[in-house]
Amino acid sequence: CSKMGKRSRQRQKNQSTGRDSRDNGWGNGYADIVKENKLFESYYKELGLVPEGEFEQFMDAMREPLPATIRITGYKSHAKEILHCLKEKYFKDIQELEIDGQKIEAPQALSWYPDEQAWHTNMSRKIIRKSPLLEKFHQFLVSETESGNISRQEAVSMLPPLLLKIEPHHKILDMCAAPGSKTAQLIEMLHADMDVPFPEGFVIANDVDNKRCYLLVHQAKRLNSPCIMVVNHDASCIPTLHINSGGKRDVLFYDRILCDVPCSGDGTLRKNIDVWKKWTTSNSLHLHGLQLRIAVRGVEQLAVGGRMVYSTCSLNPIEDEAVIAALLEKSEGALELADSSADLPGLKWMPGVSSWKLMTKEGMWYSDWSEVPSSRQTQIRPTMFPPTDSEKLASMHLERCMRILPHHQNTGGFFVAVLVKKAPMPWNKRFPKIVTLTRRGKLIVCSPHPLFSRPPPLKKMKLFGYKEDPFVFLTEDDPVFTTIQSFYDLSPDFPKLNVLTRTHEGKKRHLYMVSKELRNMLLNNSERMKVINTGVKVWSRNSDGEEFGCAFRLAQEGIYTLQPYIRSRIITVSVEDIKVLLTQENPFLSKLQDHAHAQAKKLGMGSIVLKYIPNPSNPAEPQCSIQLCGWRGKTSIRAFVPRNERFHYLRMLGVEVFKDKQGQKPSDGEKEGKEGEEAEVQKVTEEESVAENEGELDLGNGEENRSSEPKADSGSQGTSG
Fold it and tell me: What Gene Ontology terms for biological process does this UniProt record contain (predicted)?
């Protein structure tokens, strides 16, 4: 109980900062808190950020609950199938639905989000409970969220990754990444082409809070990418990393940086209702310095020609335009604000302001640094005010910043600015080093711009991680590969050097893969980075497998990464075959259709790939590739797929999966099929559930799973058929 209480208090603490409050749950309830704050109203009225005549609408919107928003995640062809399922199976029925005589408003697509991949709705939990149809819809959302195909994410939180314009070769840094919904967007964009298992680019997702890093791991792991690394550093002094480039040691500069800084969170009042009573102007004054230091560290690590998006969920210019103006002024032309007005057609936003003033919590106003008394000059800093040189101010084009107001499109409040780096930062050129002579020779010390003094250098860190198991790369001649190579007939171009494990000693329980770029990073920054997690699991040890030729079975998480290199033990299956495999626990081989049955009979016992190839001439069937891990037993066959993924694939195949409210047994909805065919989804057994949760769903965060491997017809079963 004490642990739960501690977690609850920590969650409240996190929410009060506004940092992660944009990543909302589905159907949130709202407590009876008085939604009034006179200081907030007087401050924003005086600043004039809201268009004339709209302030009441602005405040009314702030007091209304925030609509729930979802984003369809995953990679392109799979995302299209989920969208098709949502529109055809759920949204159509909801449009005709009435509850207590009131017509239910169907979910609406966000007009500015590409390809109808984001939706919002005003449905509350109370309404959802009143309708079996909505309950089904709700279970669909929960299940798809758990399997990583839908993300509950506030609308405005989706903006920064879109404005970064990610391409698959980009090296990306997410500076303040937890809880990770925007990180997930970045990963998806890297994998725009599903046929490329290892894009050239990668995402380094950082957060200062070690515990929040595990939220980040959970979000990222659902996408099963070999191109994501989670690290744990203070973003304001995140270390410079090195890579080996053509045999030379080079500094790593990022093509894209997301700088979504900690903020006062007053744009989240609609959902984060604690802010109503806690809001004061002091919050922004305390955070401005940290926000500026993080942004400075970001642009220092940005490649020339690269883009950095700076964002907050605060409407306050002290946290927004003031930070951008200070960056631009000190960059001396090295940075410029990009004009993003045409990038998101359909989005309503207000241009950034070039004039603002500052108020203390006692109600004192200051328009210029010269007015600030010396007693206040530690709390109030010159960078909080607009530049006084009108020509310089005009050249900054602060109107290119974007402020989203809640009443314009029924969203939260938000601020975002896109910076492009045109040249190295001037302090990196002007003060590259100070050379001091010592008795042993020359000592070179880096010296940054005096305005942005650095914290002391980081202490020496443990190898590859902080309180984490090590990341140990296998060599090409590792004995592990001998049986794996022959059993799965791996292609000659399989990147063995990209395979790692999490232990130096004893038997390797799980094998993971990273892209060659992340391998380069890990090997060249062992004492610089606190790595929490990287890699996607591709194989797990199965003690029963040794007698059939290989001690390692395939892991579902890594199948899309690994399958392009596997040349044997593949069974091509049909839609009907997948239905059998996912609705029956251990079907006999004879239950497969003739083509798959013939392939299965030719294979010996052990781990297999079950591969569905879409047929463009039959649009009624899924138009995306499906790859499942399985086990070929003596007389039967089994799919090793986590429960929520089973339900996901069954929905894609037209089978309705719907459990009762206790979640203990399937309802009649599971027997709905085309033309009355029965598609009975069997309850997942306790043994299988353990296998899924402890084996297949292992997060790979250094806590190796101790459960026994599933023994799917490994010789002792199926003998009666």
Answer: tRNA methylation
Amino acid at 173: L
Residue 312 and residue 152: Cα distance in Å, rounded? Answer: 19
In the block, which residue shows the tokens 């509950």? 152
Q: Can you tell me the mean pLDDT for 576-580?
A: 95
What predicted TM-score, i.e. pTM, was given to this entire model? Answer: 0.84
Sign of CA dihedral 597, 598, 603, 605: positive
668 annotated as belonging to a binding site for a ligand: no
Of 272, 161, 147, 287, the closest CA to residue 219 belongs to: 147
Choose from 16-25, 191-200, 270-279 the range with maximum mean pLDDT: 270-279
394 carries a ligand binding annotation: no
* Residue 375 counted as an annotated binding residue: no
Helix H segments across 302-337? 321-331
181 appears as a binding residue in the annotation: yes
Cβ contacts of residue 3 below 8 Å, gap of 6+? none
Using alpha carbons, select from 267, 303, 544, 273 the residue that is nearest to residue 424: 303
* 207 in a known ligand binding site: yes
CA distance linking residue 551 with residue 544, whole number of Å: 7
User: What percentage of the chain exceeds 70 in pLDDT?
Assistant: 81
| H-helix or E-strand spanning residue 151 | strand 150-152
Is residue 541 pLDDT above 50, yes or no? yes
Give the 3-state secondary structure of 221-248. HCCCCCCEEEECCCHHHCCCCEEEECCE
Q: Is 479 exposed, middle or buried (0-12, 13-18, 19+ CB in 10 A)?
A: exposed
Is 625 one of the annotated binding-site residues? no
User: What's residue 463's pLDDT?
Assistant: 39
Q: For the ranges 267-271, 509-513, 515-519, 525-529, which has the lowest average pLDDT?
A: 525-529
At residue 481, the 3 state secondary structure works out as: helix
CA 57 to chain CA centroid, Å, is 33
Cα torsion 346, 187, 22, 24 to 10°: value is 100
Residue 176 known to bind ligand: yes
Q: What is the pLDDT of residues 113-171, one digit of tens each?
A: 999 999 998 877 778 778 888 888 888 888 888 888 898 899 999 999 999 999 999 99
**Is residue 223 within 8 Å of 264, Cβ to Cβ?**
no
Give dist(CA 192, CA 596) in Å, integer. 31
CA distances from residue 282 to 122, 315, 585 in whole angstroms, order as listed = 33, 14, 60
Q: Is 260:176 a contact under the CB 8 Å cutoff? A: yes
pLDDT tens digits for range 665-683: 443 333 333 333 333 343 3
User: Which positions are annotated as active-site residues?
Assistant: 313
